[in-house]
Every structure is written in structure tokens, then in C-alpha cells.
Design brief:
Length: 218
């Protein structure tokens, strides 16, 4: 096994992602604010071997609370997947996550692709939903409510907080329904391969359902 990493998973959910990392040998701390989800994770941990339980710490809280729980440089990897758009203050949340990264650490952020949010309803033939997603003409001088979640804004902000963007990918480039189709193993493997390639390639990655941004602490 390679180096054992210290991982922070913000927005732990049911803990599936973190459990995979712990089983691979890493030390994981999960932050979750929902008591019901915390109970599910703890219930899952009770069924795991002792060595797994010892490497998995569950902490009540959210991405806003990292300063209260952790010292600077505590983690090698910080995962913030599908929670930044729900944060009360995404700026301070992201800055706090950067603060707890050690030198050379990786910040992994997954956000909805607000720039292409009309793609999914449009492909599904939901034209009313498509029009809502496209929105109307912006009032002159009105602030864009999604401005911070746009790739350009996040790229600039990550550089300012010391974890400049090193790579970004599209997640869910093709119709989500394809994943639910009954497939044989060969088709399933081809679908995964196609999604991975498209998620790394322009112009496809720019219209994915979500964006995966990776920043690194210098």
C-alpha cells in the first residue's frame, strides 16, 4: 500500500465515499451536520472490523466549522463534494478548508455546473424547466446569484487562498438515464470509459451536470 493519507470529508452523507477510503488504508475524518445521517454512518461503522473503525472519525458539524475542530495543516486531502453550493457562506467555507490543508495537500471540490444547468431539462424534453434554467434577461446592475460557483470565479478565489486550481473535470457529461439502463458488462464498461474521457475533454466537460475542481496547496 502507498502512503496513508489524512483525509477530511466535508458533508459526509451516509459515509460511502469515506468508507472506501478507510478500507483502502487511509485515515478519514468525516464532518456531517445531519444527526440522522450521522446515526447511519455510526451504524455502518459498527459492522466494520476494528481496524476500520479506528481509522474513521465522525465529527458533527459542517464546512463552516473547520476552524473550531482542526488546526492548520491537519489534512493531506480535503473533499468537499456537492455541499459548497449549500453553504451559508461559501467564501469562508472554502477558505477554512484551504487552511486545514498541509503543504502539498489536495482540495477536491464538486459543484453543480450552473453555467449549463439548462442542458439536462432540455435533453429530457422539459421545455418549461429549460426556460426556467435559462432565466430571463438579467436586470442591468443585478448581481449574479451563482457568480461564486462559476469556474472563473472559483479559479480566481482558489488562487487567492493558496490552493490554485491544477485540474478540472466534468462529471455526468451524458444523460444520467443512461446509467440506469440494463446493460451487460461490456456496455457498462464502455459507458464508464466514455464518461471519463468526455469529462476530461473540451467542449464536452463544459456542459456536464457537475464540475470537479482540484486545487493544490503549494
Amino acid at each position: 500500500m502507498g502512503r496513508r493519507l489524512r483525509v477530511l470529508d466535508v458533508g459526509l452523507g451516509e459515509g460511502n465515499q469515506s468508507l472506501r477510503l478507510v478500507r483502502a488504508g487511509h485515515q478519514v475524518t468525516g464532518l456531517e451536520s445531519d444527526p440522522a445521517l450521522l446515526d447511519r454512518v455510526r451504524g455502518s461503522l459498527e459492522r466494520e472490523p476494528e481496524g476500520i473503525r479506528e481509522r474513521f472519525r465522525v465529527v458533527p458539524g459542517s464546512g463552516q466549522d473547520t476552524g473550531a475542530h482542526f488546526l492548520p495543516g491537519t489534512f493531506d486531502v480535503v473533499l468537499c463534494h456537492d455541499v459548497l453550493d449549500q453553504a451559508r457562506d461559501p467564501h469562508s467555507t472554502l477558505a477554512g478548508l484551504a487552511r486545514v490543508l498541509d503543504a502539498g495537500g489536495l482540495l477536491s471540490v464538486v459543484i453543480p455546473n450552473v453555467t449549463a444547468r439548462a442542458m439536462r431539462p432540455g435533453l429530457a424534453g422539459d421545455w418549461q424547466g429549460t426556460l426556467r434554467a435559462l432565466g430571463g434577461p438579467a436586470a442591468e446592475g443585478a448581481e449574479d446569484p451563482d457568480r461564486f460557483l462559476r469556474l472563473e470565479s472559483l479559479t480566481s478565489f482558489l488562487a487567492r487562498i493558496g490552493v490554485p486550481l491544477v485540474r478540472w473535470y466534468g462529471v455526468g457529461v451524458f444523460a444520467p438515464g443512461a446509467a440506469e439502463d440494463a446493460e451487460n458488462a461490456e456496455n457498462a464498461e464502455a459507458r464508464v470509459d466514455a464518461e471519463e474521457r468526455a469529462g476530461r475533454t473540451d467542449p464536452y466537460r463544459a456542459v456536464a451536470a457537475s464540475l470537479h475542481l482540484c486545487g493544490a496547496r503549494g
